[in-house]
Design a protein that fits this description.
Blueprint lengths: L1 H10 L5 H30 L8 H27 L6 H34 L1 H4 L4 H18 L2 H7 L21 H33 L10 H21 L1 H14 L6 H19 L1 H12 L1 H25 L1
Helix pairs in contact: 1-11, 2-3, 2-11, 2-12, 3-4, 3-12, 4-6, 4-7, 4-8, 4-9, 8-9, 8-10, 9-12, 10-11
GO molecular function: G protein-coupled receptor activity
Keywords: Cell membrane, Disulfide bond, G-protein coupled receptor, Glycoprotein, Membrane, Receptor, Transducer, Transmembrane, Transmembrane helix
Subcellular location: Cell membrane
Length: 322
């Protein structure tokens, strides 16, 4: 039957390159991501003033990135060896952490942009802002995002009985859902995970640029204005580079998996672009620490101080050896 051959041809999309792409990307991300986020978390927790703006959100962002980075060795092993010898729950945990990192990062980047913009526009109200507010918001984000990301591994784990126990990640099956749950998942992920945050970040960026030229914020000082602008711009940059491609493709990818889209060109292009969008999303683990360094003067000062002390210790030890 011609229609059956067309359907089979469309479903057998060749994306074998994804194994090499994932392995190379995760190897490149792992070492810099581990070192940068570990150092960032240590500096943010110990050396930056507790009153520094967005400090709580930055710490949570570093934790989200570090959780994903620590799961990368297992992903690297699988994509190199095409074999999963570890317990099945580890596969699903790593799969879950990928999406937890993505959506937690989106939320915390949005909070950083919104708070920085708010502090710039309302400097007097910002003085009454308490750290416990940021802690409560962060706890709420972890609970909501952690719960909302559960369907991702559940949809893939429901077909494990029909899959080899040696498979994981990209080779996991996909459970087709009814129309209503599928539409609900797509709508929730796209609206809450992308559309609303992108609108907020775009608004914060626009308001910050406009406000820097307004007389109301003249008292803030040029240095404070530049720091606010850098932080908002870098949050927007990380968001658009890492998460926009995935969410554009996510809509088509889900509709293809649910067999709503049957056009072969769209099916092929969606499957082809999917690995690239996931790899771009993982780059946030390396880009987020750049945000801390270039937007937080205390971070640079404390990091430079630690480097200077380390150099002094090395010089002292060398002098004593000689």
């Amino acid at each position: 039957v011609p229609g059956t051959e067309l359907c089979t041809h469309c479903n057998n999309t060749n994306v074998t390159f994804q194994y090499s792409l994932y392995a190379i990307t995760y190897i490149v991300v792992f070492i810099p991501g581990l070192l940068a986020n570990s150092t960032a978390l240590w500096v943010l927790c110990r050396f930056i003033s507790k009153k520094n703006k967005a400090i709580i959100f930055m710490i949570n962002l570093a934790v989200a990135d570090l959780a994903h980075v620590l799961s990368l060795p297992l992903r690297i092993y699988y994509y190199i060896n095409h074999h999963w010898p570890f317990p099945r729950f580890l596969c699903l945990l790593c799969f879950y952490l990928k999406y937890l990192n993505m959506y937690a990062s989106i939320c915390f980047l949005t909070c950083i942009s919104l708070q920085r913009c708010f502090f710039l526009l309302k400097p007097f109200r910002a003085r009454n802002w308490k750290r416990r507010y940021d802690m409560a918001i962060s706890a709420a984000i972890w609970i909501v995002v952690g719960t909302a990301c559960l369907p991702f591994p559940i949809v893939r784990s429901a077909v494990l009985a029909n899959k080899s126990q040696d498979t994981c990640f990209a080779d996991l099956g996909y459970t087709q859902m009814n129309v209503a749950p599928s539409v609900a998942m797509i709508t929730s992920a796209e609206l809450a995970g992308f559309v609303i945050p992108v609108v907020i970040i775009a608004w914060c960026t626009w308001k910050t640029v406009i406000s820097l030229q307004h007389a109301r914020v003249a008292c803030e000082g040029e240095a404070e204005k530049r720091k606010a602008l850098r932080m908002v711009f870098m949050c927007a940059g990380v968001f658009f580079i890492c998460f926009t491609p995935y969410h554009i493709n996510f809509l088509f990818y889900t509709l293809v998996k649910e067999k709503v889209i049957t056009s072969c060109p769209i099916i092929h292009s969606t499957h082809y672009f999917h690995p690239f969008s996931l790899c771009l999303a993982s780059l946030c683990c390396c880009l987020d620490p750049v945000l801390y360094y270039f937007t937080t003067s205390e971070f640079r000062d404390q990091l430079s101080l630690r480097q200077a002390r380390f150099s002094d210790n090395v010089s002292f030890c060398s002098a004593h050896r000689s």
